[in-house]
## 1
Amino acid sequence: MTRPQLLELTSRDGRFGPHTSCPPSPPAPPLALAPPVAPWPPVDFALGALACCGACVFTNPREVVKTRLQLQGELRARGSYQRHYRGVLQALWVVGRTDGLRGLQKGLSAGLLYQGVMNGVRLGFYSYTEAAGLAAAPGGSLLAGATAGALGAFIASPAYLVKTHLQAQTVETIAVGHQHNHQGVSNAFATIYQREGLLGLWRGVNGAVPRVMVGSACQLATFSSAKEWVAQSQWFNPNSWLIALTAAMISGVAVTITMTPFDVISTRLYNQPVDELHRGRLYGGFLDCLLKVYQTEGLLGLYKGMGPVFVRLAPHTVLSMLFWDLLRQRAFRYYGGRAQN
């Protein structure tokens, strides 16, 4: 056998003979992240509501502080007003010292109502767009997240209105923004309805819808993308809850950066006083509020309370997305098992 023939035989058959009985194994398929089915609609609504209500209990004190910081110095130039609140920790201490520990949970009942209704609708709707394959199209997750956020924000707007009023009101020595002086959640709903009618309960919705549309689109799109990226990186076991936790942390940072200006405008629109014709005394709408805040308080005025926004939104995003993901995994396993039976 000549040398060229020997080389040809060696390269074809390998070191220990021919490989005809052991064909090369095909590449491993990519990880499948999203189940192809969705739970029963009431169950899906309940999963989103339960996940975000659980997160709300832990993050509501930061929401109180965020609201106060965003109302502090309203339509006043920097340095021309007394600053009662100077940061997250100092503000938490001031509220706790003045209003007591219960003051740190002001508006919790309205907050739970808002989180339950808004996120039940929002996450339930998004879950079905995923199951239908709509979120997988180019830009589909952003569009689905924004639509889900707009729908949830509109339906739950009265609860956010009452929550903002209750979280803003306090004793005169540390009060910021307009003080509505409600006696509780039910009294707030009744007072607003008697004074402004049914439409009065939706005052400020023109600021809430853009806020939640931007936040929801950013949150759900980055969470889905980050979860897929983390899973494909194979840092953790494919079924580990650490995948959802890492994705939620990435999502929390993105949401804070994009959502803060919208959050400031929404808080101002919800809390402003109204005249005899039920029109806002300070702002005529979203764009009017945006321009007035920018002209009087500067660009940084639109980022007031960004520290508390991050301290509140990041943990809230992490907890709500983690709870939601874990609850959905259990629901999918349950419904998948029933479908097989």
## 2
Amino acid sequence: MAFMPIRMHVMRLIGQKGQYSILLQRSMAYKSAISLETLYPNSSLKLTTPSFSSNSDEKFTGYIPIEKLDIKYSASSGPGGQNVNKVHTKVDLRFKLDEADWIPQEIREKMLEIHGRKLTKEGFFILRSDVTRSQQLNLADCLQKLRNIIREAAVTKKQPAPETEERIRQRHLKAARLRVAVKREDALKRAMRKPPTVVDL
């Protein structure tokens, strides 16, 4: 407390000379050795979210409109102490497949063909994730699962040419004949190992 008058006097002198703002600027101008400007000197450091532009050539671009999904959070199961009871990190993502206009019609039909048994009675397609203790990471995991399912349905399998099918059929036939020949040879070897019977004598 004895130094309080001295400190107030020094602050009053600095304020009168106008050097307080200079000292404040110097203290605010400190940059760490691992700052972004030091690590990436040639970058603009302007973080922007790119605007989405749809491409008519692609069936599915990977863009999923979150506002058209029904996302709910709940308490996650498994180990985690009391944090499990306090934080809702499990993600329950659902949407109606027949009303998802952001997915092309042919992909929706293929998804219904592949994953039709996973739909609820109301027609909801449900994805869940509780692999981490982070809400955002679990949501990202659900979205990645959904992208993989849509891309899997978007891939059209090429039908093999008739010549290729005939070659495959001939290979299967040859393998079956070889298998039967090996079985007969093994049966003959086992028969030759048997001792002679009364009939043979």
## 3
Amino acid sequence: MNLPDSLSKLFAYIDNNKVNFIETLIEAVAIKSVSAWPHTRTECQRMIDWAQHKMEVLNISCKQVDIGSQDLPDGTKIKLPNILTGTLGNDPAKKTVLVYGHLDVQPAAVEDGWDTDPFVLTPKDGKLYGRGSSDDKGPILCWLNAIEAYQRQNLTIPVNIKFVFEGMEESGSIGLHKCLMSMRRWFDDVDYACITDSRWLGNYPCVTYGLRGLAHFNLDIECAKMDMHSGVYGGTVYEAMTDLFNLMSQLVDVNGKILVPGVYDDVEPVKPDEDKIYEKIVFDVNDYKKSIGAPGRLLYENKKDLLQHRWRFPALSIHGISGAHCKPGQKTVIPGKVTGKFSIRLVPNQDPNKIEALVVDYLTKKFKESGSPNVMKCQMSHGVRAFTENPNNHNFQAAIRATEHVYGVEPNLIREGSTIPVTLTFQEVTGKNVLLLPIGCGDDGAHSQNEKINERNFIEGSKVLGAYLYELSKIL
């Protein structure tokens, strides 16, 4: 594919300014915008302010939208970081694309197992380690890098762009849906939407058209109004933790099969010709296994079955227990109340409310059968439907061509197993096609220790976004 002159100039600028772009990422990673920590919530707002300044330098007209406060479990209120919106261009003859990203990050500390300070961007072997480097500060900066390249090369930015950046995505995007619905008219001129908050499948370029949904549950068991000394009370009470283990062990078997009756009823059957979709996808099961350090075999050892169970089938995961002793050392206590946390990743046609009813009914029945006199309560704390989009839309074709311009290969067209609720909101408020255009690799460790983005992906990703804007302008 011959590269247009404008893209040649654009790409050259991005290559020549690699050092400057990485220095800006260093600034971004240094801001501890962890939305889950109340004591760093002001840093989330500082991150919004920092991004606004960077955008205004590029002549992006910005506005912050106040979305109020959050009630914490201890009864205190805490200010939510504002939503940052931006507009670049208002030419009615041009297409308009909506861009979304988030500026908050997951918690991180050296004692979690990081090799370096998570808030100091650390280059090593062509990788840039730091919290938010891949999820999602790096990809957001790729947009700004591309726009800077257009402007500094005196190239006309080929489309109008609207931006929505938030600071609470890692904590459930509190307030975002209501805010976007209230400003619905602002999206009237949007033709397409693009989200860069996702990653490749492995180390091969991708374009994503589907995500699983989510039903997250809290399972509470209470056996007493206080914690008890196991030497005094052990052997005399029905322990809450024992009940919890009993119930949690009946949710899913060792092979990943969900044991709740009815959960699979609405899952779309595999079509006769569906195998062909997976044959085309470039993916190495062994590389996938090595990337997570799995010591033994995976549940599925062939590409088709593994990807199907990652994308198109539901999965139940047990996440943890609160209310019990989990720190180093010994604490011989019987917890008076414990809460088990688990979730089911949902696929198209599955309704979170229906799944909640199935789970609650099942656990209630199992608890009754156990004969325990303790108090059990189960409820869904968060529910989101799965997202799917039409990958034959012009929006996706522009992203595919943009990827080919930069990487010289046709990208994988994939679904993904994670959940991004704002995709559904953007479908609703715009009524237009929503695209997920990943920047980082599948081994970036987005929510894990030693999160990184490859230097190559950060720089080439800036080119992909610039080329995507170019290709959108070619749509008739």
## 4
Amino acid sequence: MGMTLIILACALNTYASWWPFLVVLFYMISPIPTMIAKRFSDGSGSGNSCMENAIFLTMGIVVSSFALPIVLARVPVIQWGACYLTLAGNIVVYSTLLGFFLTFDSDDSDYNMW
């Protein structure tokens, strides 16, 4: 659904600009710092500076993906309608990624009851 909104922001005749599609790069690189930090975590529940830095980098990538269409709309590269569609697509994609990582990445849950 989120990718559909991004493609609509690019391909509709009234917008006709493929610049909003650059946020797909942010979608691909956003989970990488967290996945690397989970690989190198010590397994204890205490605060881990590697994980905190990875979350900081991930949040920077997420904020950048929301800021890019706004900046492109302020500089008249894309229209505001394409910006709104891109922002809506960002919300859908990042909520899906968050839901996936919260559901399937917890080590303490027992999936045998499913």
